[in-house]
Amino acid sequence: LREGRDMRNVVVLQELRVQLRRALTAYTGDHEKKDGDPQSNELGDEDELDQLAVDPFLSILYILTRSKRLIAYDTAGDEVTFTADLSNDMPGDTYVIACQFVPDLNAICYATAAGDLVIFDTEKRQAEGVGFVDSEIRAMSWSPDNELLVLITGNRTLVSMTQQWDLINEVPLNGADETEVTPEQQEIWNPKQVPTISWRGDGQYFVVNSEEPDGSRRMRVWDRGLVLDSVSTPVGVMGATVSWRTSGSSIACSEIKPSKKHDIIFFERNGLRLERMDFTLREGVGVETRVVAMQWNSASDLLAIALCEKTEKGETTVLQLWHMNNYHWYLKQEFRYGTWSFAALLWDTEHPMLLNVICRDGHVLRYHLCWDTLVADGTHLNNPSTAAVIDGASVLLTNFKYAVVPPPMSNFKIDSPAPVSAVAFAPVTYDIATLLSNGTIALFTYNVPLQPDVRISAAPVLRAILALPPLESSDAEERKVRQLLWVSEKKLIVIESLTSARDSLLEINFVLPVQSGGEAKVENVRRTALKGRGGKRGGTPAAENVRALRITHNKDTDRVYIQLSDGSVWAYQPPGTSAEKGEDAEQANLEERFRFAPGGFTTSCPWFASLTFAGQDEAFVGLTERSKLYVNNSLLSAECNSFAIHSRYLLFATLTHTLRLLSLSHPYEEGSLNVQTAGYDDTKRDLERGSRIVGVVPNNARVVLQMPRGNLETINPRLLSLALIRNLLDKHEFDAALVMMRQQRVDLNLIYDNNPADFLKHAELFVKQVARVSYLNLFISSLRNEDVSKTLFVSEYHRGGIITMPTPTSAAADEKGKEKVDSSNGDKNKTAIGDVNKVNLICDTLRAVFQNLDAQRYLLPIITTHVKKEPPELEEALQLIRGLRDKQPVEVLDPFAATSEEQNKSKATTAAEALDYAIFLVDVNALYSVALGTYDLDLVLMVAQKSQKDPKEYLPFLKSLRGQEPYFQRYTIDMFLRRYPSALRNLALAGDQHFPLCLSLMQRQSLYQQAWQIFKDDKEKLKQVIEVHADYLVSSDQTEAAGYLYKQIGAHEKGIAAFRTSCNWQMLFAVCKEAGWDSSKIQTMAYDVAESLQGFARHAEAGTVLERYAEDPEQSIVVLIEGFCFTEALRLCHYHSRTDLIETHLKPALLEQQERWLSKIEKRQRRFLRHKERLPEVRDAMIKTQMELEKERGDAEADRLDAMSDISEASLVSISSERPSVSSSVTSLGTRNTGTSKKSARGGGAGAAGSSGRGYGRRTRVRGKEGSANEEQWLVQSMRKLIPTPAFLGDMRQLQVMLVAFGYNAESEALQNAVSGLVGVVDAALSTIADESCVYFQLQRQNAFLEHEAKSQQQPGQFPANSSKNSWNLVLATTAPLVTAPTPL
After folding, report:
1. Residue 1308 to residues 677, 1149, 1286, 1304: CA-CA distances in angstroms?
2. Phi first, then psi: what are they for 6, rounded to 5°?
């Protein structure tokens, strides 16, 4: 019952009006009578239309006449397709009691009163009798699914049959226990009171409204199996019609009152009354009225009721469309047919807004309807955004600009002389015109002209009634006008529909009468026939069949557009404005501007309007019945349910419960709404499920939504609010902008970020306008170092990444640089002008303004500017409070206060009030600490009294402080506040007796640098400070730095120990000489140092120390040989004439190392080849497993797998069980070891990158068990570790050189061949272990979590350079020794 449509009205889009007699005449002229035809195709004067059936798929009406003729009328082609004579299948005295189109059979099924059941095949155009009922037929109806046929026979029997004409069941009409009906009772049937049948929408139940033997009528509900479900409760005089609501919630019928009035009453399925839904027919009801037909549409939101009125002038026919919401019934449309006698009505089963009506005298009418809201449009400041809701002869008016009142309530109500069909608003004045069902127009005007921001106090009054001039034809019902526009002060435009004629536009120029309530004079009426494109192209109807669909008036551009049924949009050119030559200056013209044809296929948009982008690009927005919203021919949304045009935005709501906004300030670009923004997207807002846009208020931020439960809600989308706020800020209306920002919870930083330079320039104006101190405090406290125009409100201030408004700099910051955004820190997005902090700049600027205007009045904002600065200037704020405390309180009157009462309220702020405010801004404990840091004990006491501290906590402490010497008092306070550098400074000033305490404080808090500065002028104290500092460095394992400090102060022994520990042998022996050590003592120290250097694999340095300071060349040579420093060892052997060591130590060491490295290289080459052979097998297995996994998951799951950002490698069974670290930077064979073993110190080649300290971070150790998930990764990492490095190859070269030097050519050649073989194998396999060749790496790249990690590592395939390109090989090492041993003498 609550469908959310009570703010909408029914608009007649198209009205097909055909006189079947004329159509048959045209058909007869095109199809001459054939020999043997029993009669002419023309409709006789006495013949009448009787029954109606509709093919909803082909839009063909099948009409049965009283003369037993079937006429097929194609509404799309606007022509009669065929006629058929059915008299041969029916006796002469019978007639058709009911007919219905059955899509499954592609035939019309009809039943005659005599009992014949016939189907007419519409393709073969042949009738076939399928059954006969001896007791005659009184009613027939097919179920909604066309699977079951129900008949009511003349002996009060219900019969059900299948689509194959098999009898299912047969029961008495009044229940299964009813006795057999006698022939006398059968005679009781009143031919005019035949039973009626109506099905529920799902086809599970149907209701029968039939006359009882006693003359009363009852309703009975049956299920599909003809089992009686319920019988209705008795009512007064029940009408013969019945209609079950398609949704199944209620059953409608009529009740005849003693006053001959009709009530529409409702029942539940169980037969009980739904009295809360009942309503009485109001408008359009004559002296005596009867309901002749009633039917719900398929959407259950419109109830069509056909009435026959008996008035003093005769009998007339009226068709009314009723809608209910919140248990209130609205008469949405009324169609008057005058003397046309009603025959039948039928809603389209596929399109809920198509209604078909036939009248007995040959008129066929087809209405294409739609729901739409009527809200005054246009951006004029006088526009009150009045929403009009039609309710019969009344129109409910609600001014959305000032209030939102849901129907059936309203701000105002206007009453017309007849039911209203359409409403229009005048431009500028926004007076109201109503199009009435009788063809006249009522004009309503406001007694007081509308003014911006002035509430409307009274409803408009009836100014005049305007009647159209009569047609030349005597039949007034031949013309129907629909849709209404008020385009200027004295001009109206309507669409005119004439029977069997093309639609036209009527321009009505009128003059209002002198007195209100009179009749307006029509000066002239200009009729403009609609144009169309002849023939058919792409499915476009022929020109003569094109009808008007919708007219609209853009009040901002003053242009009228009309959309035709073929999707074309034409501009209405008033007389004298046509650009075509030869046109009559007094004749209006239509000019085609656009055609809705997305993808080349024409479509019509029942809801359309014109708008402009960037103030110049005219465009058309249209919404189809399939929820597709187009801007010109670009699809904007495929799920739109409503749209509205704001002065700056196009708004539309979607079926997924979202409000979208498209800016009109920039040229339209297709897909612009799909652009992802870095910050919050203000162009999108979630709505309540089922919400629709009712209207927007131009030049405002208010958007009115209709909820599905029937109520109205108002929202203020952020972009609309920002547009208004931005406009106010540009006009320097700071107070109004700030108030709106508070109401809409908009970040107050926008006041500055909208235009920083402009704000700083008008800072004084800002302060003067925002007179309330609390608002100033709120603004200052909301400041932060972020440009909200680039973060929160990027949708309003940016387009495509380009700032739409220039960001000028302030005059104060011009010398420091222009304003810029610090993009290096995306989280903070700090905005600075030059090097000036934004918050600090605003605080300093406003503080200067406050002090210049009235420091006393703006004391609290001044305090706020101190507290808000970064870092907070709490001490300055407390100084202000202390200065205020020391002054005599003086009353300061507010210069902005208008009254004496306001002046009394603007007294100067007291120190206590200022302190209370500061405590409100800052934590009281922090403020207490700052107050204590000022060393003003009175101020500390004042703050402490305002806090929640217990006096026992602070009074004894303050009392102890008062008895101390000033500098020692400050030292005590600093220690309490943990301000240790200041405490050290104050303690040093307290006297020499506190120097030991200074050293103790310096040691505890590591204040060595500060102590150096404090005691730099006292050499003795500085020496002690340095020595204590050096001792600290020694304890911190910074012995080398400590040694230099010891040397500075002459502490040689401590310095020697420090340099000895750090192995800085150069400075060690220098200090030893400076300390006066003798040679023996130095030699002993040299042996100790050399041993330590050997432990750190620094053999070359150890050899130098032994040679120079221990004066032991033999031991030096031994150490060098052990460290493989062969060249240096050979030099010392000859330098010190110890060539014997060459034979005893040097040559054996060379051969030993050659044999050792040959064995290592051979093992590593075999290991590399073994891994290389295994690698393809592992990869083939992984790829096969991956393909099987994707096949199981299906294509859809595979696509999702590719796009997932949080995929876990644990889900890839037998591919990866943990997230390994990927790195193309691998450890090489030649990595030097830093161990303590002398033998292994130079055995480079197999160290891990993690141990070298030069890797790309900590790596996960991967196990390489055969068949495991990580086997490929382990193999690749192992092979990468075996790649020779330049350091390893350099060692091999040095070893080869020495071998050649001593004549070991064969050994050198063997070593070179081994290294060459390893290098060749590795170079050939480099591409197989590159990242792009690794399956596990490709899988990891699919994981978005590893994307950042992958960027931080080497790019795929970037290994150390090809080993063969390193100049490591020795040209002397050949198969034939180039250097031979000398010939013995």
Report:
1. 67, 14, 19, 6
2. -70, -15
| 3-state secondary structure at position 135 | coil
Query: In whole angstroms, how large is the CA radius of gyration of the chain?
Result: 50
From first CA to last CA, the distance across the chain in angstroms is 127
CA distance 433 to 443: 5
- In three state form, how does the secondary structure of 71-89 look? EEEECCCCEEEEEEECHHH
Name residues whose C-beta falls within 8 Å of residue 938's C-beta, 6 or more positions apart in sequence.
none
Least confidently predicted of 299-308, 529-538, 841-850? 529-538
Average pLDDT score, the chain: 81
Angle at 34 between CA 29 and CA 37, to 5 degrees: 110
Answer left, alpha or beta for residue 670, where phi above 0 means left and psi between -120 and 50 means alpha.
Answer: beta
Which residue bears the tokens 């001039």?
A: 469
**Non-local CB neighbours of 404 within 8 Å, separated by 6+ positions:** 398, 704, 712, 713, 714
Find where tokens 């996960």 sit. Answer: 1260
- Mean pLDDT, residues 53-65 taken together: 94
**Average of per-residue pLDDT across 1238-1262:** 39
Residues 1245 and 1160 sit within 8 Å (Cβ to Cβ): yes
SS (H, E, C) 579-613: CCCCCCCCCCEEEEEEECCHHHCCCCCCEEEEEEE
- Alpha carbons 1314 and 1373: distance in angstroms, whole number: 12
Say which amino acid occupies 237: V
Tokens of 131: 């059954």
Cis, peptide link before residue 951, omega less than 30° from 0 = no
Counting DSSP H helices and E strands in the chain, the numbers are 37, 60
pLDDT of 578 above 70: no
Q: How many other β-carbons are positioned within 10 Å of the β-carbon of residue 1374? A: 12
Tell me the CA distances in angstroms from 723 to 403, 431, 605, 696, 702, one per residue in order: 21, 28, 30, 14, 12
59, 76 contact by CB (below 8 A): yes
DSSP, collapsed to helix, strand or coil, labels residue 223 as strand
Task: Please say if the pLDDT value at position 53 is more than 90.
Answer: yes
Residues 554, 559, 565: CA angle, nearest 5 degrees: 85
Query: In the block, which residue shows the tokens 């309003």?
Result: 796
Query: What is the 3 state secondary structure string of 1032-1081?
Result: HHHHCCCHHHHHHHHHHHCCHHHHHHHHHHHCCHHHHHHHHHHHCCCHHH
8 Å CB contact between 1054 and 1046: yes
Give the total residue count for the chain: 1385
What is the three-state SS of 1074-1111? HHCCCHHHHHHHHHHHHHHHHHCCCHHHHHHHHHHCCC
Half-sphere exposure of 1264 (CA within 13 A, CB side): 12
271-296 pLDDT per residue, tens: 999 988 999 887 655 567 889 999 99
Q: What is the spatial distance between Cα 522 and Cα 80, in angstroms, rounded to a whole number? A: 38
Q: Looking at the DSSP assignment, which residues form a beta bridge with residue 254?
A: 264
Measured from the Cβ of residue 191, the count of other Cβ atoms closer than 10 Å reads 9
- State which H helix or E strand residue 982 sits in: helix 980-989
**CB under 8 Å to 1322, separation ≥6 — which residues?**
1168, 1282, 1283, 1284, 1363
Query: Quick one: DSSP state of residue 381?
Result: T
Q: What is the mean pLDDT of residues 595-609?
A: 88
Q: Are strands 518-519 and 461-466 parallel, antiparallel or unpaired?
A: parallel
- Matching residue, tokens 């049965």: 64
Rounded to 5 degrees, φ, ψ at 841 are -65, -45
Across 428-437, 829-838, 1172-1181, which has the greatest mean pLDDT? Answer: 428-437
Tokens linked to 1106: 């032994």
CA separation for the pair 968, 388 (Å, rounded): 83
